[in-house]
Amino acid sequence: MSLLPQHRDYVIVGAGVHGLSTAWHLAKELRARGKGSGADIIVLDKDGPGSGASGIACGVVRNFYFQPAMGEVMRVSVQVWEENAEILHYHGVGYLAVVGPVQQGDLEAIYERQQNSGYRSDLILGEANVYRYMKRLFPDWKARGLTTILHEKQGGFAFNTPSVMGLVRLCH
């Protein structure tokens, strides 16, 4: 406890992706407004960066969300990952959602919102078209009965622990 400072204007509890991202963005905002800096912030975690859920997360970064508000949040989030790819160990390989007829309407709605927001994606409709598209990507593709693909050209993945440590560096 002797290592803790006597005072900080901002205390963030949790050094996972959310806590570290909050600290980093808060520090940038304080600096931009001339109201302080990262020195005004402390991040506390009982075990260390990425020791909780962020350390075991699957690492998928994508904008595949049905709720419009969540889609907009994720569009901005993907942009942050893309802008800081090297330090966050982000790999922008895209994201595929391949579904049957029951979910076609959902993917069409997501695709329309993505197009309206400038998020790069393709929509492929029809069982034969889906099969050909997937066969081009994966020559050993065999699945049938799938009728819709939402292929996000943005999005990708990041390994959780190196990404968390990248956020730590951005915070510093």
How does this structure look, described?
The protein is α+β, with helices and mostly antiparallel strands and 172 residues long. It has helices spanning 17-33, 68-83, 85-88, 104-117, 127-137, 160-171, and strands at 10-13, 41-44, 60-61, 90-91, 95-99, 121-125, 148-152, 156-158. It has a three-stranded antiparallel β-sheet with strand order 3-8-4. Strands 5-7-6 form a three-stranded antiparallel β-sheet, with helices on both faces. Strands 1-2 form a two-stranded parallel sheet. The chain is elongated. The mean pLDDT is 92.
- Give the overall average pLDDT: 92
Work out the helicity level: 40-55%
Largest sheet: 3 strands, antiparallel
**Topology pattern, helix = H, strand = E:** EHEEHHEEHEHEEH
Q: How many distinct helices?
A: 6
The proportion of strand residues reads 15-25%
Using only CA atoms, what is the Rg? 20 Å
| Structural class by SSE content | alpha+beta
Which term fits the overall shape?
elongated
Q: Unreliable stretches, pLDDT < 50, 5 or more residues? A: none
| Topology, number of strands | 8
Q: Span from first to last CA?
A: 21 Å
Record the strand order, biggest sheet: 3-8-4
Keywords:
172 residues; three-stranded antiparallel sheet; 8 strands; alpha+beta
Task: Summarize this structure briefly.
By secondary structure, the chain is α+β, with helices and mostly antiparallel strands. The protein has helices at residues 17-33, 68-83, 85-88, 104-117, 127-137, 160-171; strands at residues 10-13, 41-44, 60-61, 90-91, 95-99, 121-125, 148-152, 156-158.
